[in-house]
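Supplementary Text 2. Reproducibility record for the structural model of the 715-residue chain.

All settings were left at their defaults, and a single model was retained for analysis rather than an ensemble. We include the record here because the model underlies the residue-level annotations in Supplementary Table 4.
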Amino acid sequence: MRAQLVFLLASLSLLGGCGGNSTTPPPAQVHLTITVTGTGTVTSTPAGISCPGTCSASFASGTSVTLSASAGSGFAFAGFGGACTGSSCSITLSSDQSVSATFTASASNQLTVSVTGSGTLTSNPAGINCPGTCSANFADGTNLALTATPASGFTFSGFSGACTGTTCQLTLSGGQSLSVTATFAGPPPQDITAINHIIVMLQENRSFDHYFGNLAAYWQAHGFPQATNGTTFDGLPPTASNVDPNGDAITAYNIQTACTENPSPSWNESHVDRNQSAPADPNLAPMDGFVRTAAHDATGFFYDVLGHRAMGYFVGDNQLDYYYFMASSFATSDRWFAPLLSRTQPNRMYFYGATSQGHVYPLSTTKSPPLTSETIAQLLQDNGISWKIYVHPDASGCSTTSCLYAQSYLKQFTYGSFVLNNMPNQFVSTTQLASDMQNGTLPQVSFVEPAGAAGLDEHSATADVVNAPNVQAGAVYVAKLVNTLMASPSWKDSVFILSYDEPGGFYDHVPPPPAVPPDSIQFPTDLASTDICAANTTSPICGFFTTGYRVPLIVISPFTKPNYVSHTVMDYTAMLKLIETRFKLPSLTARDAAQPDMTEFFDFVNVPWATPPSPPQQAKNLPCVLEVLSAITIAPNPAPAGGQATVTLSLAKNAIQNTTVALSSSPVGVVPPNATIANGTSSTPVPINVPSGITSLTITGSVGGIPVSATVPVQ
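Retained model, structure tokens:
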């Protein structure tokens, strides 16, 4: 037993000698302390720090610690300080350390929205849900999208304010405060208030028969409903004619030139047009003097000394393609008249003021001051209705306010100079008209002045020049304006009315109807002693008791009744009545007060042309020829049967270009199909062989479709 105890003690001693008493101490502990400035959270990996909350923790010496910073709402992490710097922090701890984290407040961006109409506006990211929540704050750099959802029966029209158009994407930064409005349109009204924009344009000097007298044939050729649905139409009669100075009856014919010398539509000529033998007779209106007055005005000045140009008419195909299609598709009238039996200037006084205050001549003729009567422009201005006058730049391209005003017929009124001096921005270029159509910024009423200085007003030539004003070029210009409207956002609630200021001395077979004098001035105050009606203050035809002659009309709108022809008698102060009716304005004079309001042209319930038609391109194929034969002579006279003779084709003066004369004969085959009068000459001979077995010979020559004939006996 003693031996076993000794052995045990010896073994314990041996174990102690092997190091059993030298165990390694645990690692030293170090402390990491975090401070936070601003609003945010700092956490650690490995876990231990979650500050605010736990902002100090112990870690074994040598531990690698990574700190993460998360900014609170409305704040941004600015960086670490102390034992770490910059935007990241990884540290190996060997001693106590302190780290700071700074969070700075972000700029506050406020978005406020509003809703017009009925619909909802929401945002992504969330925050806006209007109506309800219509204002919210968003952090700096937020990319935000707004979504507009219309209520039942409404349509979304677009954004305005900080966004425009139909989409809205915003990036919010720098403490912005932005506003956006979303507009929702309700169901359109089903009455005249559906019209929000009225555009009126008067081109120059064309009569109804001269331009639109052949519409019925066009309907038949192109299958328009008017050809078969019982539509009545008072177009150009097939027997329409006037007698020329030689006593020859000139039947209406299809003219073949886009340029014509100007017949005069002035006071005297217009009265002779109506009744050449008794122009002051209030009862008889044979409409027999158009050729006579055209001949009289040409003598010593123009080529057409026989006046035949007055009986020419255009057709739709390859001539007035665009106008015929639009008048047939939309609406026209065969009882639409100029207001006055005279020329451009006094008729355009009615266009702006529904009166000429006694004038039947331009103010410059009698050196008269501008009219003092109220104009439609003033009426609109005084009642808060927006309006503009659109004017084509002049031939030099000048589009300053002064240049535009110089071409506006508002200058015939004292109000014109008032607008120039006080509201010059009411006069704008026609290029702005296209922009206003496309941008949805049209005023409520637009007046489009004729582009006469640019040769685009369809006025006949007032001088014999090469490249004279051309009706097809004018139609192309108008088509561009109308097509721009039809393709624009403005189409949906607009009306474009195209007409002509007066008939220009061209034939029309319908006499002027009775009319209401506009004011107390019932007879002209500016007639010369030699003028027709100078001393006559009893005959209605001598005063303001009748309209002028018929002029073309096209009413173009999504609301226009399709294929419509009005037979209601009105003059074009009815356009003023339409404006007054739509915007609840009083009449200017008794004349516009007496007019229909034109609502018969529209269907506001069905909106027939919400999608407009596709019109043809306007042709530009007609030549521009002003030369017209003044005479054809056949010598000898009588012509020898079976012998030779000479046909002489004559102009009243030298040609300004080589002029082709189309020839025909009765009997046929006597003359070549054409002959040429050389530039700078006034005649050309055409030798012929006179047939045997005939008793008379007729030769017809035409230039630009305008015919002249001569007949001689044959012996």
